[in-house]
């Protein structure tokens, strides 16, 4: 048990410090941002490589309070993913600010909020007690709301206010759950709680409350209504990081607590799996009906998050082999979707920015004039649809095997229908963009960097499918009890 | 029996909460929140947590209450909000959903409370902590009811603050004012403050841009797009 090592502390605080620095003088050149931010993912990579020696854990004493943290393979992997996506988002934001007219003050505010988001996410990945998780969750949530409001239009304001109210109520539900756990078992650290807590009614109620707060923040059907409007008006780099990581952090916490407190609650796990299935189907149907490209991508996020919920029934009370497959599938899907969804939001943002359109019909002629952006969109869609050799395919393959091995056939149906629906909405976009019989529209030139970042993320999502063995190796030993 | 001052405090807390949530005159409702936060500080003193009382007075009463009052005063070019909330309450058709939410929240909290404290919790509470936990449940009920039925965003922010205070009371009543509880409540107070500031600033800008003080007109299609 040691206090937080300095390099980990630096990795946590550096995003916020850099964000504050950029707030004072907003960056105008992506080269500078790359130079300054690049050490962060490198440090995260170094931490991940060092984790093979064994997970680290420790405690931090603040007066009478003791905070617990631990860093295992999963946390290090998610940390690396976070730093990479923060870097991509920051680089994209610089280009975005040059390609569009952003309010000067709003653009300056983007940076500390992005930094605060980085700190919040970092805290969530390494937290090993409920107080630290609470701090991370709230920091992340408030920064996310703040970032969504930056456009300042009436739509953005009212969508953001709705998101704020949802997030605040979600955090009170979460706090009530913690209150019951603390009242029943008298401690907040996860390891101690796991040792003493019995699955009695109070624990069940507490986890139900925690779960509903987290599902609200993770936009799982039926608590998803805030997500699509909020993305419709948000800036592209903000949408990218939000769709990629923010909603998944809530899922991560829920899975962590569920496996700790109610590992054998099969009925509850099935209920979560059914909610996830509904999310897959409803998100897919709505994405097929969406009028705007960004709404389509946002609804697709809701559907893809639903897949993650299949982890609960496949992990609860199943054999070790099934649980191992489901566990790996979950994290491959999370990482693959994070990369692909950020790429998809950025590619969609590029298409919208250069055509000036909001609706899908405005994309006519893009296949010839904007081949790079459209190709990026298509490559990201390969992961979203789960075609080989992407990470999405690996994850769905593992889930399929796990469902069949566990005899939980309903999920097979959900996986198949979800794939069909995602193919349907992706081809809707492609079909619109290959239409040629319209008067030559006017296209705007975009900085090449914006296209290349999106392309790099989309390729990374496919590459993750090809090289899934390495991250899976980092997960396996620490993941399962 | 709990000491008489605990009973008095619990009664006053409930009265102020009710006043704050029912009052359509926004300035008075915000003053009600300030009074409520000061009473909460007294409750923390009663439980033997003077630093928490100070934090509640500073963060809850002074800063959160002050922010909301400042919102009503208006500032600079932004037009002022109307002093009285004239918006109708939500339609009766949504009532079943609303009551389902309120009753399931309160029911879950109540069952857990009785399970933890024993059936004695149903008789007049024996100690100040138990009494405050029960008061917390009632205040949560009031806050939830107001949050779900009202449309004016400032009043929903008030309801959120009261709902949060109810959760804090339940937390402190269940676990006593130990270090973890103080830490959680402190974080909760900061979150409530930041959320209130963010909500109030947004409300002012939304009001200035689109004349809206509710979310009801804000369908995803963007019917609230101002001139």
From TrEMBL, chain A:
Compartments, record wording: Cell membrane; Membrane
Topology in the lipid bilayer: Multi-pass membrane protein
Transmembrane spans: 6-24, 31-53, 73-94, 106-126, 132-151, 163-185, 205-228, 240-261, 267-285, 305-327, 339-358, 370-388, 408-427, 448-473
Taxonomy, superkingdom: Bacteria
Keyword line: Cell membrane, Membrane, Transmembrane, Transmembrane helix
Pfam name, any one: Proton_antipo_M
NADH:quinone oxidoreductase/Mrp antiporter transmembrane domain mapped to chain residues: 127-421
Main location: membrane
Listed PANTHER family: NA(+)_H(+) ANTIPORTER SUBUNIT D1, NADH DEHYDROGENASE
Similarity comment text for this entry: Belongs to the CPA3 antiporters (TC 2.A.63) subunit D family.
UniProt name for this protein: NADH-ubiquinone oxidoreductase
From TrEMBL, chain B:
Transmembrane region(s): 6-22, 29-47, 53-72, 99-118, 130-147, 159-178, 184-204
UniProt keyword annotation of Ligase present: no
InterPro entries: MrpA_C/MbhD
Topology class, membrane: Multi-pass membrane protein
Annotated Pfam families: MbhD
Protein localization: Cell membrane
MrpA C-terminal/MbhD domain: residues covered: 12-73
Superkingdom of origin organism: Bacteria
Protein keywords: Cell membrane, Membrane, Transmembrane, Transmembrane helix
Protein name per UniProt: MrpA C-terminal/MbhD domain-containing protein
Lineage: Bacteria, Pseudomonadati, Pseudomonadota, Gammaproteobacteria, Chromatiales
């Amino acid at each position: 048990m040691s206090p937080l090592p300095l390099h980990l502390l630096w990795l946590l605080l550096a995003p916020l410090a850099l964000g504050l620095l950029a707030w004072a003088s907003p960056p105008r050149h992506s080269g500078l941002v790359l130079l300054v931010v690049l050490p962060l993912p490198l440090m995260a990579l170094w931490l991940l490589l060092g984790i093979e020696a064994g997970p680290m854990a420790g405690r931090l004493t603040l007066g009478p309070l003791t905070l617990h943290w631990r860093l295992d393979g999963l946390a290090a992997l998610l940390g690396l993913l976070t730093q990479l996506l923060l870097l991509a988002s920051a680089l994209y934001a610089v280009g975005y600010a040059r390609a569009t007219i952003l309010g000067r003050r709003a653009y300056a505010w983007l940076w500390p909020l992005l930094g605060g988001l980085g700190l919040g996410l970092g805290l969530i990945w390494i937290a090993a007690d409920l107080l630290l998780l609470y701090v991370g969750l709230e920091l992340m949530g408030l920064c996310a709301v703040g970032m969504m409001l930056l456009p300042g239009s009436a739509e953005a304001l009212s969508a953001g206010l709705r998101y704020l109210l949802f997030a605040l109520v979600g955090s009170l539900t979460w706090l009530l759950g913690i209150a019951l756990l603390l009242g029943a078992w008298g401690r907040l650290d996860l390891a101690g709680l796991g040792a003493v807590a019995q699955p009695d009614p109070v624990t069940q109620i507490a986890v139900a409350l925690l779960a509903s707060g987290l599902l609200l923040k993770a936009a799982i059907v039926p608590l998803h209504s805030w997500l699509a409007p909020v993305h419709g008006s948000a800036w592209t780099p903000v949408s990218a990081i939000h769709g990629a990581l923010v909603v998944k952090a809530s899922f991560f916490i829920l899975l962590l607590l569920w496996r700790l407190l109610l590992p054998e609650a099969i009925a509850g796990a099935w209920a979560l799996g059914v909610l996830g299935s509904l999310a897959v189907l409803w998100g897919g149907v709505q994405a097929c009906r969406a009028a705007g490209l960004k709404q389509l991508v946002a609804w697709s996020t809701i559907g893809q998050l639903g897949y993650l919920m299949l982890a609960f029934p496949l992990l609860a009370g199943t054999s070790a082999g099934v649980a191992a497959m489901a566990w790996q599938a979950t994290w491959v899907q999370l990482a693959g979707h994070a990369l692909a969804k950020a790429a998809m939001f950025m590619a969609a943002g590029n298409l919208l920015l250069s055509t000036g359109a909001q609706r899908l019909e405005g994309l006519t002629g893009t296949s010839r004039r904007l081949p790079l952006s459209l190709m990026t969109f298509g490559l990201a869609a390969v992961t979203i649809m789960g075609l080989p050799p992407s990470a999405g395919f690996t994850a769905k393959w593992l889930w399929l095997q796990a469902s069949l091995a566990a005899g939980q056939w309903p999920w097979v149906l959900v996986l198949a229908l979800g794939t069909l629906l995602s193919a349907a909405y992706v081809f809707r976009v492609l079909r619109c963009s290959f239409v040629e019989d319209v008067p030559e529209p006017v296209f705007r030139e975009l900085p090449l960097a914006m296209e290349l970042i999106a392309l790099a993320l989309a390729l990374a999502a496919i590459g993750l499918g090809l090289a899934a063995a390495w991250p899976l190796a980092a997960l396996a030993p620490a993941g399962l009890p | 029996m709990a000491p008489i001052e605990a009973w008095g405090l619990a009664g006053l807390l409930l009265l102020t909460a009710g006043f704050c949530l029912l009052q359509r005159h926004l300035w008075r409702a915000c003053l009600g929140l300030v009074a409520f936060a000061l009473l909460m500080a007294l409750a923390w003193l009663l439980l033997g947590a003077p630093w928490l009382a100070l934090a509640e007075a500073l963060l809850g009463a002074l800063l959160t209450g002050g922010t909301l009052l400042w919102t009503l005063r208006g500032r600079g070019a932004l037009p002022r909000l109307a002093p009285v909330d004239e918006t109708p309450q939500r339609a009766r058709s949504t009532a079943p959903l609303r009551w389902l939410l309120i009753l399931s929240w309160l029911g879950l909290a109540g069952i857990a409370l009785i399970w933890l404290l024993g059936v004695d919790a149903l008789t007049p509470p024996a100690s100040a902590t138990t009494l405050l936990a029960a008061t917390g449940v009632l205040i949560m009920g009031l806050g939830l009811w107001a949050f779900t039925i009202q449309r004016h965003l400032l009043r929903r922010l008030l309801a959120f603050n009261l709902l949060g205070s109810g959760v804090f009371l339940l937390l402190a009543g269940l676990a006593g004012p130990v270090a973890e509880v103080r830490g959680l409540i402190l974080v909760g107070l900061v979150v409530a403050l930041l959320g209130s500031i963010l909500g109030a600033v947004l409300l002012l800008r939304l009001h200035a841009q689109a004349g809206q003080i509710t979310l009801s007109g804000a369908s995803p299609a963007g019917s609230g797009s101002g001139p």
